[in-house]
Every structure is written in C-alpha cells, then in structure tokens.
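Lecture notes, part 5. Sequence design as translation. It can be helpful to think of inverse folding as translation between two languages: the language of shapes and the language of residues. The source text, in structure tokens, appears below.
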C-alpha cells in the first residue's frame, strides 16, 4: 500500500485552513473533501473527516492565540517548514538518492492530533525566533517541489461539491 507522507498531509491540511480563512464561500467540509481526493490521486485515501477535524483544531488554535490577519502567514510558514525541514534545524533531502521527495511511504505516518501538535510547536518556535518565516511571496502552489499538486491547490471549490 502507498501511504501519504506526514509532511504532505500537513501541507494539505494547512492549505485547507488557508482556503477556509481566505474565502467567503469555502466550506471546511468541501475543502477537506477536495484535498482528500487530491491525496488519493497519488496515495492511499485519507478520509476527508480526518482532514476536516485536523483543520478545525488548527483553526481553533489560531483563534486561541488571536492570530487574526497573521493566520494565513503562519500557515504558509508551516507549509514551507514541513516541506523543507524534517524538524527544527534538520533539513529534508529534497533530492533523495533513490526515488522522489513525494514518493509514498510504506507505513501510515498520519496520526490524529500529530499535525496539530507539530503546528503548535512550530508557531511557538517561530514566535521565539527559533524558526524562520517563509520568504516573501513563497506559496505552496508555486513551489517546484510540489508541482504534482499545483492543480489541486488551484482548483476552486464550492458548496455544491459536497453533493
């Protein structure tokens, strides 16, 4: 079975929250379904409810810390961090010796609550100046390492997609 790497899942959840916060008509349920379908094009299916619950927890955390207008920026910073780093100050190998960065993993890495925990730790580390912000203008939908998902990122969603 080909499972989605946890960093890819984290990016999709972050994009779900970004689009939810940035759109006037985007439903969290419809966005979760959109990204569940995007994941299933390359990996084993991830239930849209898992994406939705994780996105809700992240949105709730952003409200708790009163992120306001900075919320989307924090989420973009997190996307870049998860793509380029394995952990604090540990860079990810973007060009592995064998395979591809976005290749499926052999064992399921997605654990409910893990993305939220990682996001919270990242935000606190960022606020303590232990992590860097994404460069100005950086977006997951334009990063060359995420090219296979650019179409999914730009696909519009509407409430009618739920039916």
């Amino acid at each position: 079975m080909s499972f989605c790497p946890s960093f890819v899942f984290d990016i999709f959840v972050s994009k779900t929250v970004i689009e939810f916060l940035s759109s006037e008509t985007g439903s969290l349920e419809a966005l979760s379904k959109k990204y569940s379908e995007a994941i299933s094009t390359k990996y084993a299916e991830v239930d849209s409810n898992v994406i939705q619950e994780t996105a809700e927890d992240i949105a709730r955390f952003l409200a708790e810390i009163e992120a306001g207008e900075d919320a989307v920026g924090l989420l973009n910073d997190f996307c870049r961090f998860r793509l380029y780093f394995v952990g604090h100050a540990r860079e990810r190998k973007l060009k592995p010796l064998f395979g591809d960065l976005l290749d499926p993993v052999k064992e399921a890495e997605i654990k409910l609550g893990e993305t939220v925990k990682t996001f919270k730790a990242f935000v606190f580390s960022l606020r303590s100046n232990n992590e860097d912000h994404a460069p100005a203008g950086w977006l997951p939908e334009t990063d060359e390492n995420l090219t296979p998902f650019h179409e999914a990122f730009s696909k519009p969603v509407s409430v009618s997609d739920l039916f």
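The translated text above is only one of many valid answers, since several sequences can fold into similar shapes. The radius of gyration is 15 Å.
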